[in-house]
Amino acid sequence: MTRTIQQLFDLTGKTALVTGGSRGLGLQMAHALGEAGAKIMLSSRKAADLEEAVGDLQAAGIDARWIAADCAREEDIRRLADETLERMGHVDILVNNAGAAWGAPAEDHPVEAWDKVMNLNIRGYFILSQHIGKHSMIPRKSGRIINVASIAGLGGNPRGMQTVAYNTSKGAVINFTRALGCEWGHYGITVNAICPGFFPSKMTMGTLKAMGEDKLAAHAPLGRLGDDEDLKGLTLLYASDAGKHITGQWLAVDGGVSVITGG
Predict the structure, then answer these.
(1) Phi, psi dihedral angles at 38 (to 5 degrees)
(2) Does the pLDDT at position 201 exceed 90?
(3) pTM reported for the whole predicted model
(4) In this structure, which long-range contacts are made by residues 207-213, counting pairs with CB atoms below 8 Å and at least 24 apart in sequence?
(5) CA of 86: how far to CAs of 3, 79, 81, 83, 189, in Å?
């Protein structure tokens, strides 16, 4: 029988691993998944931040726990994956969200900073997806991978923004999503990306201060920045059976900014 819309979006009995989940977009996405019934494993580098975030989720009635790990380090990624599988049994939904940015003119951009951004923003996504895929999703012929990219991965920057490594890494995330979605489709695994625009967060604080929140909001057709619920709907669509026929895709959640810039 055809399921109701409520049944299609229901994540009861599902498990989700969310990296970079202790604040900002990652925590917002964890709330979306948990509110739909999923059990949540949060990860980020700092235990204190994770404890606070898990407390926030638990206060909302969500089954949540945490593991501290640096997703720029391969040994940490594999430990995170193994411990998550040991504690949760399997992973139905993987949200690759941990990320870093670095601002510098391209001609002076430190190579070590380039490597730092690339290691976390794309290499880490690959290693964690590979490990969770091989040891949980492929054997079970089912899984949802959600990669957090950015509208910065769709092109260049307005004058004054100098984040060449970040833009490059997020462009790589978009094509990683396409490639993995095609390769793993026959396993019943979907792989999709979200491209947020400007959301107030610790990572965007410097840009918002330099460019001006009001100016950036005015540049968007909707005249606003993202808020603490704007990623929830798309996250749930990608994670649930409501999105079971969507893979290898990206969608911008940016108030229309990428439409103007031609992303």
Answers:
(1) -75, 150
(2) no
(3) 0.95
(4) 207/103, 207/161, 210/160, 211/158, 211/160, 211/161
(5) 32, 10, 9, 5, 21
| Active-site residue, 238 included | no
Nearest to 80 by CA among 147, 129, 27, 24: 129
- The single residue of 125, 166, 187, 238 carrying the catalytic annotation is 166
pLDDT tens profile 165-188: 999 999 999 999 999 999 999 999
Asked if 57 and 108 touch (Cβ cutoff 8 Å), the reply is no
Integer Cα distance of 191 and 74 in angstroms: 21
Report the relative pairing of strands 189-196 and 39-44 from DSSP bridges.
unpaired
How far is C-alpha 12 from the chain's CA centre?
Answer: 21
pLDDT score of 203: 65
Q: What is the mean pLDDT of residues 86-100?
A: 97
Query: Quick one: pLDDT at residue 263?
Result: 63
Q: Tokens in use for 33? A: 């998944």
Fold of 13-253: Rossmann fold (3.40.50)
Cα–Cα distance for residue pair 156/140, rounded to 1 Å: 40
**CA–CA dist 256, 18 (Å, integer):** 26
